[in-house]
Amino acid sequence: MAILGGIIKGAIDVANVFVSDANHVQNQQKELENLLNTAKNTAFGKHYQFESILNADDIAESFAKKVPYFDYHAMNDTWWKRLHDGEENVTWPNSPNYYALSSGTTGKKSKRIPVTDEMIEAIRQAGIKQVLALHNFDLPSSFFEKEIIMLGSSTNLQERTDDKLEGEISGISASNIPFWFKGYYKPGEEIAKIDEWEERVLKIAQKAKSWDIGALSGIPSWIELMLQKVIEYHKVSHIHEIWPNLQVYTSGGVAFGPYEKSFKALLGKEVIVIDTYLASEGYIATQVRPETDAMQLNTDNGIYFEFVPFTPEVINEDGSIKQNAPCLTLSEVTTDQDYALIISTVSGAWRYLIGDTIQFTNVEKAEVKITGRTKFFLNTVGSQLSVNKMDDAMRHLENHFNTQITEYTICAKRNKHDDFYHNWYLGTDLKEDEAKIAKVLDNFLKEANKNYKVARSKALEGVKVNLVPVTVFHDWNEHNKKKGGQVKMERVMSPEKFEEWETFVKQQ
């Protein structure tokens, strides 16, 4: 095996010799042309005149003018529902073999997003890019002999009446891993098919000592719960007592920052954290170098990107984008600006609002960070709080009170005098006066965000903080959907949803 590790590392090193710095703008121009050419004879392509777009002097400009923005509901209600009725060649040639189930953030009603064979291949190629990028992280040959735990949703995909299969994207991806990778893949096909989260994690804990794990992959909150279970089961102080060769954690689904402190508390030594961005709609980006934790957009792999400057004026109350919102191509973006991400893909999503906001850290290298969700933007009386600003506030509280806060949620509510205030729930074991925490939080946000400071001097009357065990957030996720997989916590709730949340917390 030591020889095999050296061979694999050598092959990766050689492959990187032939990989030059990509021209991401040119990549995107080619991707758009390929997408339009492939789909021009579909019902969608004919309706929006893809043939004429391809003949335009500026294809990107013509595409943006002729095709409106879509969110999931607009795309599904107008076009994808025809796929469910058995129609082919709707937004992409033929019909998809898979549907990715996504309820967004702990919603009860699942979305069904088409996943074509071309998208599965694109995800596979993005995975290969990620492996090749390990060359930049200076890992020893021995690392490439080790096994990897990919903790996603169940690979026990459900068969539909039309003979298609559906499940979460992590389960679809894991069920299509290359044959040569199966020897490295843990927890293995049998355990990965278990639907019940608690049962699956227990099986992992039982098998843990027999595996030589070098890498972990999955959403931070669920990886943490799995590691805690393994540590408790074997009565050890940290995970490196079970997996001494663990060197890499590939994070995904959400920003890793909020989980960094609690994740490190489960380790016996440092590991390399590599961020990735796999959504139900496709593999968006992956971190390719250790000098930054930003991720490089996959610009040559089945996705065409557009970017809407993210301001309160262009966002509807439900998080969708107004049709008159301006849109930029990769050649026009700048750093230090939040953008709502728009994608067109080989699964037949067109000018599709994925729901995430990103910020460029390096335009030439097409490197981005996830900064939040369009619907998790709290702009009550002009406070303009995005998720990344809320995350920063949580890191400040962690440092100030020497604690860990991995989960939180917030709602703008009205008090009995009909004035607005921000009501926060923080997942932590901190024992401290909640009013004192609220004051520290409020002061930090005033200093960090001038819009918030102005709002606090006018119609935003106050801040309330409630401390609850982090397990309450996990139980809420389970109550709404299930544990594990792609499930993520709502950072901002509507008053109606918040009322459900507060009732649930009281019952706990």
TrEMBL record:
Domain GH3 middle: 299-363
Transmembrane segment boundaries: none
Domain spans labelled GH3 C-terminal: 391-495
One of the Pfam families matching this protein, by short name: GH3_M
InterPro entries from the UniProt entry: GH3, GH3_C, GH3_M
Domain of life: Bacteria
Cross-referenced PANTHER family: GH3 DOMAIN-CONTAINING PROTEIN (PTHR31901)
The protein, known as: GH3 auxin-responsive promoter family protein
Source organism: Tenacibaculum geojense
